[in-house]
Each structure stands twice: as C-alpha cells, then as structure tokens.
Description:
The complex is a heterodimer. By secondary structure, chain A is mostly helical. Chain A has two domains: 1-74, no CATH class; 78-238, no CATH class. Chain A has 13 helices and no strands. Chain A starts with a helix and ends with a helix. By secondary structure, chain B is mostly helical. Chain B has two domains: 1-73, no CATH class; 77-127. Chain B has helices at 2-21, 28-46, 51-56, 58-68, 70-73, 75-78, 85-123. Chain B is extended, with a radius of gyration of 21 Å. The two termini of chain B are 38 Å apart.
Amino acid sequence: xxxxxxxxxxxxxxxxxxxxxxxxxxxxxxxxxxxxxxxxxxxxxxxxxxxxxxxxxxxxxxxxxxxxxxxxxxxxxxxxxxxxxxxxxxxxxxxxxxxxxxxxxxxxxxxxxxxxxxxxxxxxxxxxxxxxxxxxxxxxxxxxxxxxxxxxxxxxxxxxxxxxxxxxxxxxxxxxxxxxxxxxxxxxxxxxxxxxxxxxxxxxxxxxxxxxxxxxxxxxxxxxxxxxxxxxxxxxxx
Amino acid sequence: xxxxxxxxxxxxxxxxxxxxxxxxxxxxxxxxxxxxxxxxxxxxxxxxxxxxxxxxxxxxxxxxxxxxxxxxxxxxxxxxxxxxxxxxxxxxxxxxxxxxxxxxxxxxxxxxxxxxxxxxxxxxxxx
Lengths: 238, 127
C-alpha cells in the first residue's frame, strides 16, 4: 500500500520526470563517450528513446512528463542568447566570411524547405503534414510558431525539428569527410543551417570554429526561413 | 555565475519585448543574441578586455556552462514523439525519406555555395 502510494507520487511529481530527463541524458552521454563520439551514437536520440520507453512502460502521458521536463526546455532561450559569446569572440572570422555566409544562407534555407516538402508530397503526404514539415530545419520554438501561424499542427513540427536535428548531427561528419571538405567554418555553417541547435551541439563537439559558424547559421536561418515560407509554401503545396 | 545567467536572461527578455513590440520576424532569443554581440562590441570599444577576461567573467562562465548542456535541452521537445506514433506508422516512410533527402541535399547545397563564394571572393582579393 505504501509502495503503491509512493509510486503514484513518483509518477505525477515534476521532480521525478526532471530527474529522469537528466538521468537518461547522462546514460546516453556515457554511451556516446564510450563510442568515442561516433556520429551514429547520438546522445539526444538515445535519451529520447530511453524516456519514450519509460513513458510507455509507466503509462504516463506527455503532459505529465513535460511538467517536469519544462525546466530543462526553458533553458533553450538563454542558451540561444549565450551563443552570442563565442560568436563575438570569433567576429573577425565571421567578417572575413561575410559573403559566403550570406549566399549559402539564402540558398540553403530555400533548398531545406523545398526539398523536404517536394519529397513528402511526391510520396503522398497530406497537406497538413507538408505544412508541418516546411520549417523543420530551424530551431524548435520558432518552427512551431511558423506552423501555428499557417494553421498547421505545431507539435508535429516540434518532433520533425528534433528528428532533423539528430539526422544532421549524425550525417554531417561522414558526409563532409566523404566530400573532402576541410573548411570547418563551411562545415559548421552547413550543419547549423540544416539542423539548428542539435547540429550546433554536434559542431561544437567536433571543432570550436565549426560550432561558432553553426550557431551563426542557426540564428540567421531562424530569421530567413519564417520570412521565406509564406511565399514558397502556397506554390509548393498548391 | 548568477550575474552571468542574469545577463543572458535580461538580453532574452529585451529580445522578446522587441520582437513583440516592434513585430519583428526574428524570435526573441535570436534578437537577444544579436543585441548581446552588439553590447560586447560596444563594451570593448570603451573598456577594452581580451578573450581570456571574457571567458573568465561571469557571463563567459554562464555561457560556457549552458552551451555545454545544449544537447540535453532538446530532449524534452523530442520526447513529444510519443504523441505521434500513430501518424509515424501511417506517414513514416514519406516523412523519413523527406527528412533524410532534405538534410543531405541541404548540407551539400549550403557547404557548396559557401566554398564557391569564398573562392570567388578570394579571387577578387576580398578574403
């Protein structure tokens, strides 16, 4: 009886889900470290799988989980502002790469939207899914606001954004090595643009200059993509 | 550390107010990021400091701590996937194909244009 009451308390208290989030991430990060930061062993993906399994096993719903996890989620805002510190430290490097940065930002943002929507449309995805898919390369909060503004399912966008982030973080290192790209500013900018903060976290794990350019791309794309989508989407979705 | 975290929150708050008050297209934290860079540039102009002093400052420590934890911060939103297991069963193939193809193509397009324009700018002696 007492054990049952304790269990009921545990399942509903935000403290438990907050602790579980940190525990899952620590386990995932240990695995990533043991794999020598191999790109396929992505700590974000592992932590999500562990917590998803825990939710299924306990029957707790996402809202209960998020009541605890929101304290971690909240820190995304100040962490985005914090990117200003390494960007400031590398401002000279940013100035030197100004034109490559502007050109690849505009091209990359448009390619990211069009390629995703066209492939999903070709495979028969319904209109609401296409709307939710369009802003998948930008940071979660902004992407969800864009989908909401277009009357689409914002939480689905949140999931697609995280999936895109993990994919980019997994793909970028082998892909860039395959292409023989050794310019870490270019590599970082590409992964930050395609895969926002999760790509940026991966870039910081690989190289500090890559991290700075990834953070820059993530910040800039969070401005360009919401500006471009309303013009592109009616034309793409029809 | 507390002062550093305070500075980050203040810039985010100013960013949120600016984007709502002025109807800017950029999200609050991104405006906050831009304002923080501007503030650091201005501060250095009037009261010079070097990279090490910034890294050792309250702000530098808070920023480094938060950025080290960046991957963790995406976990709560990602766990939201449990709400969409049904949709993933129906549309999983289309979504997976769209995300994989789009991510690869976007990475290649972005890095390609970056390197191409860098070479062109360099050829003109701008690098």
